[in-house]
User: Fold these one by one.
Assistant:
Number 1:
Amino acid sequence: AGAALYDPDSDSWSVYTHDSVKRILADYEHFSSQMQEHPSEEEPIEGSILRRDPPKHKQMRSLVAKAFTAKVIEAMEPRIRIIAEELLDRAAGAGYLEVVGDLASPLPVIVIAELLGIPSEDRALFKGWSDDLVGKDYTRYLQCQKEMTDYFRIRIEERRVRPQDDLITALMQSCMADDNGLSELEVIGMCILLLVAGNETTTNLIASMIMCLESSPELYKELRLDHSLIPGTVEETLRFCSPVQIMERRVKADMNWNGHSMKEGQRVYTYIGASGHDEHVFVDPGKFDVRRSPNPHLAFGQGIHFCLGAMLARLEAKVALSAIVDRIDSLQRTGDEPLERLESDMMFGIKQLRLK
Ligand code: HEM
């Protein structure tokens, strides 16, 4: 169960089983999340919580968790529903619903922008950054981090003078309160990370979920009658079409791991997507079964880096699905051309999904 495959071309290891993916993600003592030894100022994301090991990680996580609480997220539910309804209303005039562009993509961007406290007139700017951060142009990616750094620096300054009821203020207050807190750049890195980590992943979750339901008309009918199946549908989509397919780690020091001789600095790729289809853990893994219980998928990771936004992502997906089932009698695509997958090995998602 602990098999790791070595690839001499890239001098890296890959693991696919549920057991080994879970163990490696959780084992920060042997597998580091810090990909760069000294993250540069140009890339605040590289210095962010996602890419730090303890003790720095623990310090950041406890500060950030104070701002990003269950209470803050739960309070967003009615507002998320309104945003989803508005997006669906806007699309209604077109005669078809393009699930990705009309709903799944704008929803998480608007939600996180509102949570952070970004004024609505800056929404377009924000959406542009969010797209460029996951795009393929590295120069633009770096430039974008610089623009966002400048932008958030000003927003933080404003809140120092006049605190507001938003996440930027909460992050600033909890993270920069004393000498043991975070630097301004670290808080900015956190704000940027929330965009990078949360937007495309949630978009892909929502779109994949509708794709799975479109091919199960009977299940969709059941869901319309029984909304209690919605949370299980979200969980099963996370397992079946894990939005994050692969997570990376770096071997900290030469060691023997399960009979494999791993060397310091080598990359280890954990295939989260494959782990969700491991038949030793999931009975009949090729079946999309919304009643699967328990459903111990690893879509949000495992251990100290477990996704900070899991609760928000689940909430957005549930609200999006309930808005759809309340409006659409049956899901039917406008054509039968094959769906196109996003061009990424790291992520799973579809480019478009057009419904009648
Ligand atoms: C971490 C997946 C949505 C913020 C992670 C990790 C995974 C993940 C696998 C662990 C990375 C690792 O172990 O190295 C997802 C998926 C999402 C999603 C599949 C949507 C379906 C969100 C949202 C936010 C968010 C909406 C915030 C608004 C974060 C942050 C971390 C993280 C800050 C780093 C936590 C840490 O290092 O302690 N996510 N995520 N994610 N996620 Fe998410």
Number 2:
Amino acid sequence: MKKRYIRHASELVTCRGNAPKHGKEMSDVGIIKDGAVLIHDDKIVAVGTTEELDQQINKEEYEVIDASGKVVMPGFVDSHTHFIFGGYRADEFSWRLKGDSYMSIMERGGGINATVIPTREATEEELVEAGRERLNRMLEFGVTTVEGKSGYGMDCETELKQLRAMKKLDETHAVDIVRTFLGPHSVLPEWKGKEREFLEEQLQVVMPKVKEENLAEFADIFTEKNVFNIEDSEYYLTKAKEMGFKLKIHADEIYQLGGAELASRVGAVSADHLLKASDEGIHQMRDAGVISTLLPATAFCLKEEYAPGRKMIDEGCAVAIASDLNPGSCFTNSIPLLVALGCIYMNMSIEEVITALTINGAAAVDRADIVGSLEAGKQADIIFLKFPSIHFMPYHTGINLVETVIKKGETVYH
Ligand code: NIG
Ligand code: FE
């Protein structure tokens, strides 16, 4: 058995709990000063002060790791990304800088549909190799679990290819990958006006194959004006749930359509974006236990107003923050950027942002019982920061503070 003992962490941030934290609970990240963690193989077996754990064990049996002067905390869970895709859309970014909008580019045939052809043309191997590079970059930022979506094929073959690429990466890369089927990501010109038929095809042809090969745990849809309306989205999500998929939804991003309310009605695990969520929708998500996943780097890149994170927390919601890494609206997986935007523009405290990136992110991918906190029984997914306090995270603005990443008990980045 491999035994490791981390001791003398200036701040051991436990984020303890097996469930999402709501409202005020988000401010408590369970800091232990001069903290210590015991690891046996891939699991945490104890946390406490260095003094407490020193008394419990024979240090000779352990590889001892000194964490003095450092924060030790759970690996980040990036619970919303589209990291498997072909091609890039740098041209769209420069058009937007000149005043074009995301929706007008989409209406001209750009946007998500512009990523479809290069993704269809890429081989599975090419998607795996590009994905591996992106996962390496995530690991450097301390991300140890990531959610990834299909949605750039919009035909059966390519959707399955994207999901298979992620499955292969999950088996061969240190970062754990939670896979989501997002066939209804956009409406290709040939399906305009026939959205319901497109959804039927997803439900009857594509999704049974996804199930058969166990390629995705979640089903997701882009519910938006000029994409999928509430009625069609409700139909799709309800059927997907009957097939055994857990649910996510891209909701109320550009227009207020009632996506937050829909997520609550169908019992989605998370509703994501939510820039325009209504007050009623916020209350319903809280009452239905839907995680509100906020993607502030997308709002930043699109120059949109930020989601009302402060209000959601004050109203008692469980808020997660994720990157939304994708080739169009948000080509970044920078955790320091998310920290800065959460603290500076969404008026969240650093404790709330940490909760949103750890235990609540884990809950958004239904893994809160396995990752997202440091406590006995959890997977040993642990990161070290170069500074002694969590307050350096927003203060040393935009800088990656991650020094070491331990995944399932092994050091995978240093
Ligand atoms: O979450 N909003 C829809 N989907 C993505 C954008 C994907 C793209 O532009 O390629 C999002 O922002
Ligand atoms: Fe997205």
